[in-house]
Design goal:
Radius of gyration: 26 Å
CATH topology of one domain: OB fold (Dihydrolipoamide Acetyltransferase, E2P)
Mean pLDDT: 80
Helix content: under 10%
Structural class: mainly beta
Shape: elongated
Strand content: 35-45%
CATH architecture of one domain: Beta Barrel
Oligomer: single chain
CATH superfamily of one domain: Nucleic acid-binding proteins
Number of helices: 1
Low-confidence stretches: 108-124
Strand order of the largest sheet: 1-3-4-6-5
Number of strands: 6
CATH class of one domain: Mainly Beta
């Protein structure tokens, strides 16, 4: 079975930090993730996805992320049912995050509210100059190689 999720989106509200009765930190937040397609003449739609993180990751998210920040999350999908205050049965769908990552700066940020700079864009590597002469592998010695007997067990 495979249950792997990778998402990138913006926090729609500040994360909420709570602790279990045993003192384990947990944090919940919701991100808006743009859909990858848009119909002609319409605005791009977004999905709003609930995320749960635990322990040190929960404390990290609550300390460094705020409403509007772009965040990348990887984890797994978890579903559960519960009964609300009025006795109705509810169904919850959420992503339990293993890792969270900074992904850029909040648009229009002044840097005053926990903002951070996006990493500089990667540049293409410089082209290597062509060698002056073709490389010859004939200069090597036959003693540089060992014959492997394929009738024996593999060495790994």
């Amino acid at each position: 079975m495979l249950n792997v999720v990778a998402l990138m989106g913006r926090l729609v509200a500040d994360p909420e930090l709570r602790h279990t009765p045993n003192g384990v930190a947990t944090c919940t937040f919701r991100i808006a993730v743009d859909r990858s397609f848009v119909r002609a003449g319409e605005e791009r739609k977004a999905d709003f996805i609930d995320i749960v993180v635990w322990r040190q990751t929960a404390e990290f998210v609550c300390k460094y992320f705020h409403k509007g920040n772009l965040i990348a999350v990887d984890g797994s999908i978890q579903t559960r049912t519960y009964e609300d205050k009025t006795g109705n049965k509810r169904y919850a769908f959420e992503v339990v995050a293993n890792n969270v990552h900074f992904t850029g700066e909040k648009s229009g940020s002044t840097g005053g509210q926990g903002g951070y700079s996006a990493p500089a864009p990667m540049q293409a590597p410089a082209a290597r100059p062509a060698p002056a002469e073709p490389v010859s592998y004939a200069a090597g010695s036959a003693d540089d190689f060992a014959v492997i007997d394929d009738n024996e067990d593999l060495p790994f």
